[in-house]
Amino acid sequence: MLIVLIALFAVAFVAPLIFRRLGRSAFYVLAAVPGAAFVWLVITFDQYTGEGQNLLEGQPNAPPSIIFRWIPSLTLELAFRMDTLAAVLSLLILGIGALVLFYCARYFKQNDPNLGPFGAQLLAFAGAMFGLVTADDMILLFIFWELTTVLSYLLIGYSRHRLAARRAALQALIVTTLGGLTMLVGMIMLGQTAGTYRISDIMAQSESLLSNGLVVDVAIGLILVGAVTKSALIPFHFWLPGAMAAPTPVSAYLHAAAMVKAGIYLVARFAPGFADAASWLPMIMILGLATMLIGGWRALRQHDLKLILAYGTVSQLGFLTMVVGLGGPGGALAGLGMLVAHGLFKATLFLVVGIIDHQAGTRDIRKLAGIRKTAPALAVIATIAAASMAGIPPLLGFVAKESIFETFVHQAEIDPTPIGTLLLIGIVAGSALTFAYSARFVWGGFACKGKEATEFTRVEKSFLFAPALLTVFTVGLGLWPAPLDAIIQPYVTLFEADGEDSYLALWHGFTPALALSVVTIVVGVLLFWFRAQVERAQSRVPALIDAERGYKYTIGTLDDVAVWITGRTQRGSLAFYLFVILTMAIITPLTAIVFYDAPLPDQWHYADSPAQVAAGVVIILGILAAIRATKRFMAVLMVGVTGYGMALIFALQGAPDLALTQMLVETIVLVAFVLALRSLPARLWQKEPGRYRLLRAVLGISFGLVMAAIAMSSMASRIAAPVSLEYPGLAYEGGGGENIVNVTLVDIRAWDTYGEISVLAIAATGIASLIFIRGRGDTRQRAESVKSGSVDRGQEPLGVFGREAAALELAKKFSSVSRDAWLVAGRTLAPERRSIIFEVITRLLFHSIIIFSIYLLLAGHNLPGGGFAGGLMAGLALTVRYLAGGRFELAEASPVSAGVLLGAGMATTSLSALIPLLLGGQILQTAILEFWMPVFGDVKFVTSTIFDIGVYLVVVGLVLDVLRSLGSEIDERSEGLSASTDPDDMQAQQQEHTESGEGVVR
To answer: How far apart are CA 893 and CA 959, in angstroms?
Structure first.
């Protein structure tokens, strides 16, 4: 099963490339993946239907399971289990998924936009659903649950140019995410109470868990909220009809086998153990019956074929929830039978609607007429599927519905209260509504209606294949339901028998259930026959409660509150933001120190050496100079001085790794600051700071003192030995390295590092998105296509005589030398922008710096260095190339884009984390390999070095993104401005700025 899951996501990942090559025919390739998985599942199905459905992993005859320990300390694991329930759902997910993808190859046109992403998302949706039903860990189930939410958002919003599609997608996302998060709370409560998150273990101890009373009842109620929102039950039913904005194949899959079935699956999964919970039956029965009746009633008012089916699905989901959630063997058998029947007929009907819309150009039953004559095969397919939905023999829908009637008749007989009878009456009424809207669908889509036939293009056989095959199963399993009964029975054994054995059959004899089926059909026929009167009656019934209007009101209120809060907090003033942040950062910890009587040191040690005192003096002078600076450039330089002072303190304290990294970070940050300053006024203050100067001083000094007090109090509060004392042993024995800092980053605290580089990648993307309007500037223009001396010409007009003129003449001679240039793209710069010395030094040092960065990377496990330091060093080399030769030199120096480097780095770290898991170890587990190599001799290689390589690539990608965003892009824009400015005007402006002391930093 793991191979199937990986294959679904892997092919989805490369799907856009397949579409680029094959066009819409790529859907056939995608359909082959779930199709092959379906065949595999059918062949191996006997393995999942054994008698020991409740047996745990490792016990004889237990259902097959795969378990990878993820984070044992948090009881998190990747656990998969294929039992009967998961197998039945997987048949629907894979089988219908394959047919829907096959159908897409004829539904979409060759030139429809974004087919690649759409196909990838639809196949990934199948993968997420398969993962959801096979997950045997609640947290893993939640991950796949939310993945279906995200993918459904993308699929529903496929036509993103339409406002209705975007709104429907967002509405589905908000509602189902709300339910998912609520469900997560319930799962955590249940998992913590049970001491495990593995579903099979929880079900095994369900009886003892129920004895915990309120906490488990609340947990189950919260879990059911997730099922209610996902399966669109009252009062969250409104998002499902809105989701009809999606392409019809998405609607078919969403309704028949995917997202909305996830809620039904969740109910079916927990019903064997928790149907007796206090919150279970009230929620299931009340919401299920209300949804069934309201959905069916609303379906009779619709004129769009898709909306008839959509509200019909809402009704059927309420019906399914009641049956599956009833508990007992009868409900289990009937529920899964109806689940399969619903998947078959609902997928068929949606695919039929897609064909009608595709060939006729409309789905409005008021415009459609005579299609049964122009497309008789399509009419037959639709009629059979609708008849199954209505519960007409000898189809599977009738078999399943009669089994449901049998179950609820038995429930009414054993229930001493009128509730059982009321439920039975409600189900019969809902079934009559189902018959009526099924008839409305067939009549509205295919009847002649005494009008001229709708223009309808002939349907290709390949277009009809998917709905026709589903119809064959609907008829075949109706006439011979024994195979379906056989595969469902093992799930039924999870429930305690409460009478005669239940089974699926076309004929049970003359029973009360058969009489109820006749009543359903008769009432349904009457509702359809008097449809005009029914529609008039519906129009007179006021909508007392409108759930969708309530949703819109809630969202609107949240928006208003957000606007109100934003208007009072987000003033656009950086000073105000800093004031709020720093004030809270002072008050909160200071309050804790005072009220909790936190200890302070009783001994003071000011410095270890005079050098430390000197470094501290330098830092303080840098701070004071930064405060007093009137130019931004000077302020940045002085802030950099404080950073270099900290690096010196680290070095004096015997922390060369920290000192090296701090020094490199300060250098890169200084360059980034200077590049960004070119877009800002040179002066720090456009006017004097004024009356807030004292407040700023008090706030800054207070923040520093409070942070110092926190640090001292933390040190004085220690009562146990520092954990750092164990780090040398952990680093050398567990991590295989002598550099404690680096081993900590890539092994002991690798999760922290992974989070940090993720933030770096996000920050780089954020910077690029702020600067670049289209794309992220990864397209590289080669220097050979640029005219020599054309870049940055005229930015600094020079005098005609004097030293500036002489320097310009020398630069021109240097730039026109015919021999090999010192830099690849140096010639593209205007002569006055070039420096002979700088270019020569860059040529001499660049490769040495790169080699040194690689040395730092590889040696960092035992010596000062590592991926961070090495990446910063390589970034510094790229910075030198850019400063010496401009943006085209940077492009030549970095043929690989920043995005590729960031992605490669994240992929490398991710693979280094997952490969140990696939080999039977734990995530991020380190292996120490010792071997002999020619020339090198004995080699000791630690696999965490691969993780460090990923860190190296991410850091280089970050620096490159900063250089391209704040450097190259701003250069290009400033060159465009200078090209439209008269040189004489520029010279006059420069003279004016020089005299006023407001020159722009270069």
So the answer is: 13
Q: Which two tokens stand for residue 414?
A: 């054993």
524, two tokens: 């349904």
Contact, 431 vs 401, CB < 8 A?
yes
DSSP 161: T
The encoded tokens of residue 235 equal 């009062």
| Residue 90 C-alpha from the chain's centroid | 23
| Residue for token pair 């998060």 | 181
Distance CA 776, CA 17 (A): 21
**Residue 786 to residue 828: CA distance in whole angstroms:** 6
User: What's the distance, Cα to Cα, between the start and end of the chain in Å?
Assistant: 60
Tell me whether strands 65-71 and 928-933 are parallel, antiparallel or unpaired. Answer: unpaired
Give the model confidence (pLDDT) of 496-518 as tens digits: 877 667 788 888 788 888 889 89
DSSP category for residue 45: G
Region of residue 509 (left: phi > 0; alpha: psi -120 to 50; beta: else): left
DSSP 452: P
Two structure tokens written together for 372: 């049964």
What pLDDT sits at residue 812?
55
Q: Using CA atoms, how far apart are residues 625 and 627, in angstroms rounded to an integer? A: 5
> From CA 444, how far away is CA 438, in angstroms rounded?
10
Q: CB-based burial of residue 610 (10 Å sphere; 0-12 exposed, 13-18 middle, 19+ buried)?
A: exposed
pLDDT of the residue at 508: 79
Q: Quote the CA–CA distance of 831 and 791 in Å, as a whole number.
A: 9
Lowest mean pLDDT among 183-197, 457-471, 841-855, 918-932: 918-932
Asked whether the beta carbons of 443 and 83 are under 8 A apart, the reply is no
Q: Within 10 A of 723 (CB to CB), how many other CB atoms are there?
A: 8
Which tokens go with 187?
């799962």
* pLDDT tier, 533 (very low <50, low <70, confident <90, very high otherwise): confident
pLDDT(591) > 90: no
Which residue type is seen at 241? P
Task: Return all residues near 754 (Cβ < 8 A) that are at least 6 apart.
Answer: 909, 913, 924
For 18, 38, 116, the CA distances from 25, given in Å and listed in that order, are 9, 21, 11
Which are the contacts of 451, defined by CB distance < 8 A and separation ≥ 6? 369, 370
**Using one digit for the tens of pLDDT, what is the confidence trace for 179-189?**
999 999 999 99
**In sequence order, what DSSP letters do the residues of 218-229 get, joined into one string?**
HHHHHHHHHHHH
Average pLDDT of span 368-387: 90
3-class DSSP assignment, residue 340: helix
Cβ–Cβ under 8 Å, residues 89 and 145: no
Calpha distance 311→309 (Å, rounded): 6
- Phi/psi for 937 (5° steps) reads 80, -140
CB 617 within 8 Å of CB 645? no
Kindly state the average pLDDT of the residues 414-421: 81
Question: Among all chains, which residue has been given the structure tokens 């005579």?
Answer: 370
- Please report, for residues 398, 756, 767, 868, 950, the alpha-carbon distance to residue 761 in angstroms, rounded to integers and kept in the order given: 56, 9, 10, 13, 12
Task: Kindly report, residue by residue over 146-162, the tens digit of the pLDDT.
Answer: 999 999 999 988 887 88
The β-bridge relationship of strands 937-942 and 65-71 is unpaired
| CA–CA gap between residue 550 and residue 235 (Å, rounded) | 10
- Rounded distance between C-alpha atoms, residue 403 and residue 390, angstroms: 14
Look up residue 426 and give its amino acid.
Answer: G
Which of 361, 380, 592, 369 has its CA nearest to residue 457? Answer: 361
Q: CA-CA distance, 171 to 240, in Å (whole number)? A: 9
Residue 68 host element (H or E): strand 65-71
Listed in sequence order, the residues at least 6 apart from 993 whose beta carbon sits closer than 8 Å to its beta carbon are 682, 999, 1000
Helix axes 482-492, 328-360, angle to 10 degrees: 130
Whole-number Å distance between alpha carbons of 82 and 88: 10
- CA dist 959 and 967 (Å) reads 11
Which are the contacts of 630, defined by CB distance < 8 A and separation ≥ 6? 683, 684, 685
Tokens read off for 118: 């759409």
